[in-house]
Write a structure and sequence with these properties.
The complex is a heterodimer of chains A (114) and B (118). Chain A starts with a strand and ends with a strand. With 114 residues, chain A is mainly β. Chain A contains no helices and 12 strands. In chain A, strand 8 and strand 9 form a beta hairpin. Chain B is built from no helices and 11 strands. Classes of the chains: A mainly beta (114), B mainly beta (118).
Chain lengths: 114, 118
């Protein structure tokens, strides 16, 4: 079974600084997708960024970028120029196309200090 | 386009009762997935429905069931509630792919239903 591990239960960053959230996963599949979701206090899950496993280029969405290391099964999220609105729980997730399901990590609670 | 809606947003039940939660997907979306979120177990996949058929199921007991209607709206039912069923139940809708690497389509999540079992 695929597993996703986020080893940082909590992280904090100063406003305007950069922070990196870590994620590792385990799979025997060669084709899959990886995601970072944000869940603010409202509990609404919001997709932050996605990465297709077959793509070597790391995905970027404005201030958010990933470092995808397929051989190491590592998928970290870098948030640049952190803003107060970035404060939330962040989940790393794996999607197996055969199973049509998302497998989530435990989450990392990000605090942004003014 | 309206987002995914879930009703009710909050629910309080007692042990032994049963509960039905509803999810209306985004218009045009035919796949609905359900997830349970608890502090102890995190986010776990319950099941996925497509074209009124359960296409995938997670590791939950038979007390958890669901269905999907012809308009793609989905309901999930939990019978004989236990204290451990207290959770945030999230549903997500998507336009399902036809298989293969390109089959992923983004899952859009609803706001969730907070179930408390006393």
């Amino acid at each position: 079974a695929q597993t996703v591990t986020q080893s940082q239960p909590e992280m904090s960053v100063q406003e305007a600084e950069t922070v990196t959230l870590s994620c590792t996963y385990d799979t025997s599949e060669s084709d899959y997708y990886l995601f970072w979701y944000k869940q603010p206090p409202s509990r609404q899950m919001i997709l932050v960024i996605r990465q297709e496993a077959y793509k070597q280029q790391n995905a970027t969405e404005n201030r958010f970028s990933v470092n995808f290391q397929k051989a190491a099964k590592s998928f970290s999220l870098k948030i640049s120029d952190s803003q107060l609105g970035d404060a939330a729980m962040y989940f790393c997730a794996y999607y197996e196309t055969s199973g049509s399901r998302l497998t989530f990590g435990e989450g990392t609670q990000l605090t942004v200090n003014p | 386009k309206a987002g995914v809606t879930q009703t009710p947003r909050y629910l309080i039940k007692t042990r032994g009762q049963q509960v039905t939660l509803s999810c209306s997907p985004i218009s045009g979306h035919r796949s609905v997935s359900w997830y349970q979120q608890t502090p102890g177990q995190g986010l776990q996949f319950l099941f996925e429905y497509f074209s009124e058929t359960q296409r995938n199921k997670g590791n939950f007991p038979g007390r958890f069931s669901g269905r999907q209607f012809s308009n793609s709206r989905s309901e999930m039912n939990v019978s004989t509630l236990e204290l451990g069923d207290s959770a945030l139940y999230l549903c997500a809708s998507s336009i399902p792919g036809q298989g293969g690497l390109s089959s992923y389509n983004e899952q859009f999540f609803g706001p969730g239903t907070r179930l408390t079992v006393l």
